[in-house]
């Protein structure tokens, strides 16, 4: 299968400190051909136990781009009764952009974003990186509507027209040469309450404008541009991976498309004896979007890991 020759990259940090553990971000690679994770590289420039969260990753030209994000500091504040209590202190929203050359195993600095942001949509279209939405301030539930595009050849970000709505924790998708920003959240008026964005917006690079498209209702759905409607993908409602339970808490879930397959990567906390640090298992489930009959889902054997890890990137990428 062609999909087995590709790899999925995501960024994690440690959930628990130890005298020998630096909790700061690293990048891992999942190989579908042998159902295994392996360490790729640490994200450079981070002070020990400083964590980058809510950043986006993009793949272009054999490189992984680490874009923006929220910088925080994880600190142990436990006492004798609760020795592993951790607090997370937000520090700043970043505009920095790093490029990791996969083949050469080397990091490079790129031109920074025009607008610092985290939890934003990101996608690659016609050899350019598009970002849109997200949050620009730490103490605010508001999203932003601004967007920009990166040209690798010129190492330059250029501002785009704003989207019609504020949104963060939205998803960027490229389809038929157009950029789509789907879903997300935004503040409700001036309050701290949030509301879901079930709509999507489409940006046509040729027309240099955004267009709101009909609302999206969640689950696994496919957008029909001709009819301007979302359709539930057949077989996707029988999702095979479990939700969190008191004894099997889900720690992360992310998805990467490879060809006609959707790879869902999840991590679960495993029960641990009293007084011991809990371990975790990672599980990968695959949904075949072109399957006929009832064999839409397949799952790889769960992998037990020595320590719990936390997904830090806003999504993952396949290369």
Give the ordered list of helices and strands. Answer: EEEEEEEEEEEEEEEEEEEEEEEEEEE
Structural class: mainly beta
Helix content: under 10%
Mean pLDDT: 86
DSSP summary, beta strand count: 27
Termini, distance in Å? 15 Å
Radius of gyration using CA atoms only: 20 Å
Low-confidence stretches: none
Number of helices: 0
Principal-axis shape? globular
**Major sheet details:** 5 strands, antiparallel
Bin the strand percentage: over 45%
Structure description:
This protein has 319 residues and is mostly beta strands. It is 0% helix and 49% strand. It is built from no helices and 27 strands. The strands form 7 sheets. Strands 1, 2, 3, 26 and 27 form a 5-stranded antiparallel sheet that branches. Strands 4, 5, 6, 7 and 8 form a 5-stranded antiparallel sheet that branches. A hairpin with a 4-residue loop joins β11 and β12. It is globular and about 60 Å long.
Short description:
The chain has 319 residues and is mainly beta. The chain contains no helices and 27 strands. The strands form 7 sheets. Strands 1, 2, 3, 26 and 27 form a 5-stranded antiparallel beta sheet that branches. Strands 4, 5, 6, 7 and 8 form a 5-stranded antiparallel beta sheet that branches.
Key terms:
single chain, 319 residues, mainly beta, five-stranded antiparallel sheet, globular
Topology:
Blueprint: E1 8-14, E2 26-31, E3 36-42, E4 50-53, E5 56-60, E6 63-76, E7 86-101, E8 106-110, E9 121-125, E10 128-132, E11 147-151, E12 156-160, E13 171-175, E14 178-182, E15 185-187, E16 194-196, E17 200-204, E18 209-213, E19 221-224, E20 229-232, E21 250-258, E22 261-269, E23 280-288, E24 297-299, E25 303-305, E26 309-311, E27 317-318
Antiparallel strand pairs: 1-2, 1-26, 1-27, 2-3, 4-6, 5-6, 6-7, 7-8, 9-10, 10-11, 11-12, 13-14, 14-17, 15-16, 17-18, 19-20, 21-22, 22-23, 23-24, 23-25
């Amino acid at each position: 299968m062609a999909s087995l020759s590709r790899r999925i990259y995501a960024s994690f940090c440690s959930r628990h400190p130890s005298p020998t553990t630096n909790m700061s971000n690293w990048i891992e690679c999942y190989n579908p051909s042998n159902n295994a994770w392996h360490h790729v590289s640490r994200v450079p420039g981070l002070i020990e136990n400083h964590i980058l969260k809510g950043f986006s990753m993009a793949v272009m030209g054999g490189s992984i781009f680490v874009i923006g994000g929220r910088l925080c500091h994880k600190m142990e504040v436990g006492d004798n009764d609760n020795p592993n209590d951790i607090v997370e202190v937000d520090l700043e929203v970043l505009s920095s952009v790093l490029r990791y050359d996969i083949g050469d195993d080397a990091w490079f600095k790129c031109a920074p974003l025009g607008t610092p942001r985290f939890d934003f949509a990101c996608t690659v279209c016609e050899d350019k990186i598009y970002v849109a939405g997200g949050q620009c301030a730490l103490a605010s539930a508001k999203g932003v509507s601004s967007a920009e595009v990166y040209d690798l050849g010129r190492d330059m970000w250029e501002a785009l027209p704003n989207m019609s709505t504020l949104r963060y924790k939205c998803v960027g998708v490229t389809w038929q040469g157009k950029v789509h920003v789907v879903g997300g959240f935004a503040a409700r008026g001036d309050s701290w309450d949030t509301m879901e964005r079930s709509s999507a917006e489409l940006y046509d690079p040729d027309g240099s404008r955004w267009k709101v498209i009909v609302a999206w209702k969640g689950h696994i759905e496919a957008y029909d541009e001709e009819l301007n409607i979302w359709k539930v993908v057949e077989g996707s409602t029988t999702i095979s991976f479990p939700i969190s339970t008191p004894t099997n808490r889900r720690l992360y879930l992310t998805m990467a498309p490879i060809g006609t397959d959707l790879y869902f990567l999840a991590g679960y906390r495993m029960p641990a004896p009293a007084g011991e640090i809990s371990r975790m298992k990672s599980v990968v489930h695959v949904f075949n979007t072109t399957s006929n009959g009832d064999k839409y889902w397949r799952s790889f054997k769960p992998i037990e890991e020595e320590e719990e890890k936390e997904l830090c990137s806003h999504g993952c990428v396949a290369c």
